[in-house]
Amino acid sequence: MGADKNSIEARFEQGLFASRWLMAPMYLGLVVSLGMLTVVFTKELVYYASKTFSMTADQGILAILTLIDLSLAANLLLIVLFSGYENFVSKLDLGDQRDRPSWMGKVDFSGLKMKLIASIVAISGIHLLKVFMEVGKQAADAPVNGERMLWLVIIHLTFVLSGVLLALMDWLSARTSKH
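Structure tokens predicted for UPF0114 protein GCM10010991_13130 (179 residues):
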């Protein structure tokens, strides 16, 4: 009876371990999302490039911030895609690729959390900067009002505070002896 229990337990554990592959379609979906973001980036780039000679300096800065915002979102996708796959599904066997990013294979779940929150804070900060640049200008499509500005600042500060608290928790966890 003991041998049956061990073999049932072993098969159950192997099944649990194999279930990590259910994440693979999600990572494939993130690849599709990266393609979608590339199309949006290209569309924005073509739109702004065609208006370069008629833009004011402020409009040029806003255009650049929009493109930076999109590239940060793409970086965030790549971080989640590579780190998540390597941490939770399988190591990427790329042979002797020389252009493999140095952080690949070294970002654990804690590092992934920190990279995610840092990217979110950066994206939020860029969005907030874009809104601040609109202050004093009459934008017909989205006039800036005090209440909206207050909420954007509160949301951004919430992201910043979350990042600080996550970093503090990781620091405290690293200093705690393992049980």
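The mean pLDDT is 82.
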